[in-house]
Each structure stands twice: as C-alpha cells, then as structure tokens.
Amino acid sequence: MRMRSHLFGAVTACAVLVLSGCVVDESALDTKPIDIQVEEQSAIAALVPSAIRAGGVLKVGTNPPYQPNEFKDRNGDIIGYDVDLVDAIGAVLGLKVVYTQSDFDKIIPSVQAGSYHMGMSSFTDSLEREEQVDFVTYYTAGIQWAAKPGRDVDPDDACGLRVGVQVSTTEDTDEVPAKSEACVARGAEPIVKVAFDTQDQAVNAALLGQVDAFSADSPVTAYAIKKTDGQLEQVGPTYDSAPYGFPIKKGSELAAAVQQAVQYLIDDGQYRKISEHWGVQAGMIETAQINGAEE
User: Fold this and answer.
1) Superfamily of domain 143-240
2) pTM of the model
C-alpha cells in the first residue's frame, strides 16, 4: 500500500518557455481556491458532537507543502484541493474551519489527544492507521506516470528508459526499483532511475527531455498535467490505488457528520467542481466511507 511520505515535495512546472529550463514557483501560477457557495445542512450539522458545535470551530491539523492538496500561496495562506473540500465540509456542518500547520507525524497523535478535531494531509487510509483513528474517505490515489506527448513509454515495459522520481518517495524506494528489477530478471536493461530533491525538478526534467517520464502520486501527476497545459500526458494505468481519508478521533460522532457532509457534496456536485478545479477528478469517489481501507 502506498503511504504518503512527509518528505514528498511540491509540484511546480513551466507551462511556457519550456526550452529555457525555468522552474516556476507555485505562487506565480496564480492558483486560487475555488469560489463556490455551500449552505449549512441542519440535519447533518446536528450530528456534530455538542462540544464542537458549541464552539463553532472545526480544528484541523495539516502539513503543507503537498501540491495540489495542501500548500501555501504567496501570502502564506494554506490552500489546495483538500482545503477547498474541507472548507466546504465546514460550511455543510455550520462550522468555521481553523487550520494549524503541524509536522506530518504529529497530526494523528494530536487528533487522538483532542488538540485537533480532524487531520487533513493526504493521509492514506490503512488498516494499521485505523487502529489509532477513524478515517472518512474522500479520494482514491495511487501511482501515476506522465511523459511528453509522443513519447513511447509503457510503465510496465520501461526497460532502458530514464524515469524521474522525487527522492524518498515510494516511487523512488519501491515502485521504480521493482519495475527495474523485473526488467533485469527477463534479461532487459534496467530502468535508469533519476532521483530529484523536489517533484518540480522531476516534472521539468520530463518537459526538457532529460528523462523519458516521471512517476509520482496520482493527484500530483494530474496537477502537473493540468498546469503544463498539454505538454505532459498520463501514460499507463494508476497503480496501487488506495483511499485518502480524514483522520478523526476513534469513536467520535464527528466521523459520521464528516462522512455525511462529504457524501452531500458528492451528491450535490460541489465535490466534482472542486476536484475539476484542481485537475484531480480521476481520483473522485462516489461513496464516502468510514474506515474504507482494504486488505
């Protein structure tokens, strides 16, 4: 199962002037939160635990940067796909959402301790983590490759190709090495893995032809494709798909409230609008679940 690494960095890429080799800072891309109107749903809001409802605030711990899900704009505000979705959840529940930046590894313990009501940091819902907290699923993510249009790239037969990854990610430590070992086992050339400190460097290497393709988490790849405006395309299927979820204190009634809020947004169409705004609609789900991890 793919697990988010807190070292996984930002996707930033040149949408123009590719041959110059530039790397554009994300704040310069003018990415903005989506402007949608979401009304409080009293029947769902009534499910919120009384102590939280009385305070009127949903305290959320998060760990940017992780484009496009949660990252900071040029003003230092936390924005992204997850943020827009949680803001909409807060509106359904009649709560003001307050985000606090935290180390990734401290978010779940802080949810358990009650410092945060919920976590929001592209958490993979796993059976192991479900022993600590409950999860409300909202997205399906996996591993996705991308390349320039016209490149002859098959992730299942990439022997001898140069493939960009970000250092310390699952793609770097497990996925590409496993594919390379399979090449060698059948007598073909290994994949030349090219590891970069940040994801934006891997994206730009693909744009400049320095690597044949790059491999990253599916929403990160989708965002890079959206931001480069046709200069990259998805190649191959999405591998090792697993649900993203919002961690909530084990046994809290808040989980049912958040699950119904997500389902309301799915059924009402706001979830799709938010997903399409960030270019990550490939991972949309139809049903939000509490603890949706699979064996």
Assistant:
1) Periplasmic binding protein-like II (3.40.190.10)
2) 0.80
